[in-house]
Sequence to fold (225 residues):
Amino acid sequence: GAGVSQSPRYKVTKRGQDVALRCDPISGHVSLYWYRQALGQGPEFLTYFNYEAQQDKSGLPNDRFSAERPEGSISTLTIQRTEQRDSAMYRCASSLGQGGSGELFFGEGSRLTVL
Amino acid sequence: TQLLEQSPQFLSIQEGENLTVYCNSSSVFSSLQWYRQEPGEGPVLLVTVVTGGEVKKLKRLTFQFGDARKDSSLHITAAQPGDTGLYLCAGLGGTYKYIFGTGTRLKVLA
Fold:
């Protein structure tokens, strides 16, 4: 596609429900990142994929958070048993190469609200 | 843990004024990027600096990477209302992980 596409753009869920956030990166981009961003602050790193391999998941807050990229393209970030503190903007970014100073192209984000 | 602290956190200036935003860390980064983010959108890359001491200019914006590759600055000359936004630095660590700074929110008044 022309850019990084994320869905849903907005998700409202009740505490305890599971949610899945989808990221469709720019075609051919090898690297895929997930970040979480609070309003007016810098993105907080969650996890990084090189093709289908999850090479760094050190930013995932706890074991309720998981991510996959099974075919090296589309990625899903799943949050199980959501809590109110999970409410945030979740942003996906892709990059052409394997890290190394490449430009990150960000999607428009998925805003999650947990009631 | 690699942290990037930006200062100031907020900046409101008049059109035509100059300003500098700082990005500091105790960690060494192999490269550093600056992004600008507008409300409702994702960050967009402005520049990448790789070499310690490197200076890059982009029209009225001047970016510098510290000699030790631990800090960077962004200087804007004659700011315009179109420069308004959230400015973010991002350092590349050893595992292809881009660490973003705390952000500087700039508002330029006409």
